[in-house]
Amino acid sequence: MRRLVIAGNWKMNKTISEGLELVRQMSMELKDVKDIDIIVCPVFTALYSVSLEIEGSNIELGAQNLFWKETGAFTGEISPVMLKDVNCKYVIIGHSERRSIFKETNEFVNKKLKAALKTGLIPIVCVGERLEDRQMNKTFDVISDHINGALQGLSADELKDIIIAYEPVWAIGTGRNASPEQAQEVHAFIRKMITDNFGASVAEHLRILYGGSVKPENVEAIMAQPDIDGALVGGASLKADSFVQLVRLCLPQGC
Ligand code: PEP
């Protein structure tokens, strides 16, 4: 049985005080939740303060990006060691906004993934097709390319420590989510790829999240799919009410 994950990606939102207010409310209202891994991914500047605020709670900390070197002349970048230093446990890698706006390639994603693992961070690796890929029936080609590119050179053992997020680009921040069946089809495809390349036991344990306009109104139907093990949530993670509601709807008795 795979443990569900609900991760909030705050993107470039929330000052330190706003972030603290948000996690204070979330941790108060979710303190009884034991069966779900709850993660928040604030902006870099808020990571340390948020880490202190959630210490001892059931909310865990993730970053939204990293660079693969430990130190050096890389102006504007943050290393895996620095993320560990501010108590991060997870890091999002290869988000579609990084791929499209900042031109991150599969090679970047692969290097970042390896650096995260080497430092003991759990990567949440994002993959997903654009609308035009889907319209041209290229969804599975793009997913294969993203998965093969990201996981190149990794061992089955290393795969045990990663989370994959399927995020169709056309569903991110658009209010238009993939249907549960569309998402399940891609999740099953990813799990089959992992089975073929790393073995059935690794695939069985791998957690694959769905991301793309997840909200309280659609989360139960999405989570009811057999290969969907949680959600990466953008917009609905910026308000305590919607995030709390969403997590609660995913509790075992909820979905
Ligand atoms: C995301 O940023 O990863 C995301 C899924 O955003 P949203 O939930 O707003 O679509």
Characterization of the model:
This protein has 255 residues and is α/β, with parallel strands linked by helices. It has one domain (4-249): Alpha-Beta Barrel (TIM Barrel). Helix content is 45%, strand content 16%. It is built from twelve helices and eight strands. It has helices at 16-29, 44-54, 80-85, 96-101, 106-119, 131-135, 139-151, 156-159, 180-198, 200-205, 216-223, 240-249; strands spanning 4-9, 36-41, 59-63, 90-93, 122-127, 163-166, 207-211, 230-233. Strands 1-2-3-4-5-6-7-8 form an eight-stranded parallel beta barrel, surrounded by six helices. Strand 1 (4-9), helix 1 and strand 2 form a beta-alpha-beta unit. The longest helix is centred in the last third of the chain and has 19 residues, at 180-198. The radius of gyration is 17 Å and the shape is globular. The two termini are 14 Å apart. The mean pLDDT is 97.
